[in-house]
Amino acid sequence: METLKRTPGPNARPGRTGRVVVYQAFAHTGPESPVEGTKPIYLYLRLSKYHKDKADAIERQRIDLVRMLTAEGSWTVMGEYIDNDSASSSAIKTRKGWRQLNADIESGKVQAVAFWKLDRTNRIASKCIEWIATCQRGNVILRSHQDSPDELNTATAGAKLVTGIKALLAEVETDSMSERQLASKRHLAEAGFHHGGMRPFGWISGPRVTDEYGRTGVRLVPHPVEHQALKVAVEMVLAGKSLSQIGRHWKKEFGITTASGAFVYEASVYRSLVSPRMIGYRMRRVPEHQRGVKIDLLDYIARDANGNPVISQEPVCDRAIWLRVRRLLEQARTANVRRPWGSHEWLLTGIIFCQCGGRLYGHQKRRVRLSGEEYTEYVYRCMTNRHRGSGNCPGSCTVNANKAEAYVLGWFFSQITDEALAKARARRRLARADNEVESLLAELDEATAEKIALVSKQGTGEYKGAMVTVLLGLVEDAQRRIDVLQRRVDSLETDDLLIVDGQDVLQTWEQRGIKEKRSYLRRMIRQINALPGRKQIETRIQIIAIE
Fold it and tell me: Which residues form the Recombinase domain (predicted)?
């Protein structure tokens, strides 16, 4: 097998910056047992990047604590728990050292803890006081370089008061800093300025400018290579190309790779194309990803004082095209029947219909020859009787997939000429209108949501007995509307990249993806009607061409 070399391209994406020093949650640094006449104690060290602690903060805390404990002469430092994170109020999930420390306190392993200052443990007053109370109940001794031991280890009202005030002041400091930074970022977002973070793919930081209100900042400007790559990616998605094909094309034509020289990951391409940045919007306060929770990124864009979206950088495409690209990518990501069982492409899905008006769906059957050999037969079959009840389709049409696809491709190759492709391209340019596309997309989304709602009602008390047939009929009607709207949207899509010339199509047909092949067929074929029976395939298939 040929091994692909991973050589970073001239426009390789930078790798994510990591921490200069990566610490373990716990490190055993002392002897196996405490020095005679001393008690074991453990250090808790934390660097808060949020509060601009220097990179050597952990080392400085360690030096101060070791000097203090050595001077007291009654302790042996056994180990240390370390966190290299952001502020405690927003980094609970990443504080591995803190979680490990509390687990060891609960198990009884740790009976004494030393830290530089109380706010190193927690900056939320209620949590801080609760933690101190837990340590006191477990007879865990707390030592601090900056705080009095009596305040931390005494259960008197005065000690609790002093400790509570200090914890509250730390929390207020964090909240005040957070409010100032949020206000600053809100103004930056409203003005369309970039406020740091990893550079978004497709843009780079431009010169510092001042807006009409006197706010100064940096706006994003198109990257000389990546912005054009996004435009090409939009055309490729509309043409039926896959995300992996886009990644390969980026490396070949633009030299865009990962930091290691590999093709840009499909997930990275997907995130770039579905981001509202594609139409010039600026993302604002996007919630943290939660497994199984889907959000609409358009709900998290920056808006001005009047509630209008802020256009902060040059868009890649207009809104209508981007909505279609997003929907195509979402369909490809969530469809469960793109290639059933990974065995057959099902080229005619979506354009072949039964005489009853229902769609034919791909289906595979296991057959046994007279010799006893097993083989798989692929067919398109009408599912109307199953969806809507027996008798709705009198013919129950089934056609062999390989024969039907071969017949349709034979017709298609005989019709695909440069003149025919030019006419198809002209029709789409003439028919396309952004407002019409948006209207159709809205209707399509509404019909899809209706179908999902109906399907979710299966098996509920609302639809039982004879009402099940009614529900299936409603689902089928919604699917019919979806099919009609989908064909209308397909007829208005812009795909000049796809239509080159007839000879090119014939020569490169086998190298094209299934979505692209179906897209070609829809440019020449309005619908394929299939008749039931056992006659020759050419007498059972009727192809209705687009005039």
Answer: 200-335
245 vs 294, higher pLDDT: 245
Helix (H) or strand (E) holding 222, with range, is strand 216-222
**Do 329 and 347 share a domain, yes or no?**
no
Domain span holding position 229: 223-334
Question: 209, 186 in Cβ contact below 8 A?
Answer: no
Q: Two tokens at 138? A: 């477990």
Beta-carbon-side half-sphere exposure of residue 86 (alpha carbons within 13 Å): 9
Highest mean pLDDT among 389-398, 401-410, 435-444: 401-410
> Largest alpha-carbon pair distance within the chain?
100
As given in the structure block, the two tokens for residue 287 are: 């919630």
Residues 180-187: contacts with CB under 8 Å, at least 24 apart: 187/215
CA 1 vs. chain centroid, Å, equals 32
Residues 88-125 have pLDDT tens digits of 444 455 688 888 999 999 999 999 999 988 777 776 76
Q: Is the pLDDT of residue 400 over 80?
A: yes
**Tens-digit pLDDT profile for residues 231-243:** 999 999 988 888 8
**What are the structure tokens assigned to 171, written together?**
């929390």
Distance between CA atoms of residues 179 and 186, nearest Å: 10
The helix/strand/coil state of 29 is coil
* Measured distance CA(161)–CA(157) in Å, rounded: 6
Residue 352 shares a structural domain with residue 457: yes
Q: How many CB atoms lie within 10 A of CB 208?
A: 10
Beta partners for residue 377, in sequence order: 365
What 8-state DSSP symbol labels residue 108? T
Strand partners, 309: 303
Question: How many domains is the chain partitioned into structurally?
Answer: 3
pLDDT tens-digit readout, 492-524: 554 444 445 667 777 788 877 777 788 788 878
pTM for this predicted structure: 0.52
What average pLDDT does the segment 529-535 reach?
Answer: 89
Query: Same domain for 421 and 538?
Result: yes
Closest by CA position to 401, among listed 382, 377, 385, 384: 377
Q: Residue 252 maps to which CATH number?
A: 3.90.1750.20
Q: How far apart are CA 123 and CA 399, in angstroms?
A: 69
List Cβ neighbours of 14 (8 Å cut-off, separation of 6 or more): 259
Say if CB 470 and CB 478 are below 8 A apart: no
The secondary structure of 51-91 as a DSSP string is GT--TTHHHHHHHHHHHHHHHH-SEEEEEEEEEEES-GGG-
Pairing of strands 26-28, 398-400: unpaired
User: What is the spatial distance between Cα 58 and Cα 347, in angstroms, rounded to a whole number?
Assistant: 62
For the stretch 46-99, pLDDT in tens is: 886 644 455 678 888 999 999 999 999 899 999 999 987 654 444 455 688 888
